[in-house]
Amino acid sequence: MRVAPVGGTAVQDHVALAEIELCGELIIAASAAPERLSLASIDEVLRVTEEREPGDR
Questions:
Q1: Per-residue pLDDT tens over the stretch 1-57
Q2: 52 neighbors 34 (Cβ within 8 angstroms)
Q3: CB contact at 8 A, 37 and 29
Q4: How much is the CA Rg of the chain, to the nearest whole Å?
Q5: Can you tell me the distance from the alpha carbon of 22 to that of 40, in angstroms, rounded to the nearest whole number?
Q6: In 1-57, which residue ranges form alpha helices assigned H by DSSP?
Q7: Global confidence as pTM
Q8: pLDDT of residue 43
Q9: CA end-to-end span of the chain, whole Å?
Q10: From what superkingdom does this record's organism come (predicted)?
Q11: Are 29 and 41 a contacting pair, CB within 8 Å?
Q12: pLDDT for position 47
């Protein structure tokens, strides 16, 4: 059996860490909102800059 050496050879996935951070921010925003978040509010929290068409969900 092979065991990982002690001393910090952990690999960090920066994309996964960024996604986890954004999910946390979205959860915080949703829990603080009095109503369901609008698409515009979600985009703001997730820092989305593209424009949506009026009927898009």
A1: 666 666 655 667 888 898 999 999 999 999 999 999 999 999 999 888 766 666 655
A2: no
A3: yes
A4: 18
A5: 15
A6: 14-32, 39-45
A7: 0.61
A8: 92
A9: 50
A10: Bacteria
A11: yes
A12: 87
Place of tokens 């109503």: 35
> Among 50, 40, 42, which Cα is nearest to 22's?
42
pLDDT of residue 40: 92
- The answer to whether the beta carbons of residues 47 and 26 sit under 8 Å apart is no
Specify the pLDDT at position 6: 63
Enter the tokens of residue 8: 């910090």
Would you state the structure tokens that stand for residue 31, as one six-digit string? Answer: 């829990």
Domain boundaries, the chain: 14-45
Copy the structure tokens of residue 26: 């979205």
Q: Which amino acid is at 32?
A: A
What lies within 8 Å, CB to CB, of 41 at 6+ separation is: 29, 33
Check: CB of residue 43 under 8 Å from CB of residue 35: no
